[in-house]
TrEMBL record:
The lineage of its organism: Bacteria, Candidatus Roizmaniibacteriota. It comes from the Bacteria. It holds the Pfam family MshEN. GO terms for cellular component: plasma membrane. This is Type II secretion system protein GspE.
Amino acid sequence: MLLKEEQLIELLKKINVLDDKKLKKAHEFMKDSSIGFQEAIIQLNFISDEQLGITIANHLKIPFISLAKISIPEAVFHIVPEKIARKQKAIAFARDANGIKLAMADPSNKEIIEMVARKTQSKVLPHLASERDIMNTFYIFKKDLQKSFSNLIEKSVKNHGHDMPVSKIVDLILETAFYDKVSDIHIEPQEEYALARYRIDGILHDVIKYPRDLNERILTRIKVLSRLRTDEHMSPQDGKMRFEIEDSFIDLRVSIIPIANGEKAVLRLLSAHNKNITLTDLGMSDNDLEKVNRAYTKSYGMVLSTGPTGSGKSTSIYAILKNLNTRAKNITTIEDPIEYRIQGVNQIQVNPKTKLTFASGLRSILRQDPNIIFVGEIRDSETAGIAVNAALTGHLVVSTLHTNDAATALPRLMDMKIEPFLVASTVNIIIAQRLVRKICEMCKTTINTTHEELRKNLPSEMVKKHFGAKSIINIYKGSGCPVCHSTGFIGRLGVFEVIEVTKEIRSLILKKADSDVIIEQAEKDGMSTMLDDGLDKVAQGITTIEEVLRVTKVEGI
């Protein structure tokens, strides 16, 4: 770190970026997320990545460079070998009569400066660049220097005819997906061609069309890597594969199904970084975090996470299990599928072929002396009944339900023939969530809007609550850049609503009250709805109003 934390705090207080309240929040965020001070104040939106870099550079009287805003000649980029550049966090970005201009996360690093000077026999001019900007630049160059799918296929057809190297094409699909931070790869045959699509931040993008007759060979290669039957074309198959890239392994879950035009494959990339993610990283507010902490530190009862597929429920549950995981507790899970391995936790995979279902597995777990049980999903009355009984008999049960909001989970359990008094006695908390895309920090811009404009999509009291009474309101958006694929967004975080089952809500459950009445009471008890939580994040400059409305499905939008 160029400046000690105390020095940086003093500097940021001088320019009115920090006060004691913000400083306290930053330190709490650091503790919860296990990140450094600089990353914490950026994630909390107290200052942008670029503004922080400029502030430090001005204080140290070092020139600052934003690599995202310039074009780097390929020959200059390769002056520092990539492995060394990544390790030292340094990129050569320009060369002129004065010497080599070197962007560095730490311009006091004499080792890399001397190495570049010896290699080029030129003077080296250090510039400060943010670490995030440097790492994004590696990513963009990696992407730009890869051959496109089209070029590879064209060249392969020309040189090899029907013997084109399908293994190279599959490797390129996987490698590009890794660099593009893809969650799912769709490989699907159409009537006249085949198509590869990537899901990035929840949105599917067409990547490449290729000859349809090539699709079968690509699917065969995927089946081989996933240890699936290559002679089976009429039945669905599920498998796993592992791909090595940059000295690490990426696990993929593979699903292949027969469709009208052939076979379609969907590959889910399981990100290793999600193993260490916390609820704070996921965007949960301090108020909601406090409620969740109270609920999962009880030794019995149920913690429920609700939301549609792809809303981040599993990641939230894994974050909770990670906090609960100590040597003094026996944690056992039954999942379909097991997405991430947790050291020290006994994880069971559902297997219908051996009649290992959620219900039968849960019965067996109860004979294994567990303290905490994670049931991947409560799908039926039998599983619900066993889970509720486990929660009543001194176990903490964590599970997921497919409902649209938190309040609907309570009537849903009653629909599964669970008596209201059992629901009231066992459920500690219900967490509902969606995922919104985050504005790209590299191309974030401020736009001015008015109350009238916002009231077209939002109730007047909501606008006033989250954006104040000013006539002109500042909100943010991403203008689009190479880092975010010109979408204006990069990465996602959650918007939450958390219902803590209070005495009043227990009373409503016993009366079989509908979800609207329960929501009304929860709001009186201090619950923020997903829309409220999302608009808080809009006001903080983390996401856009359009994103929040898209995932919360507000009427009229």
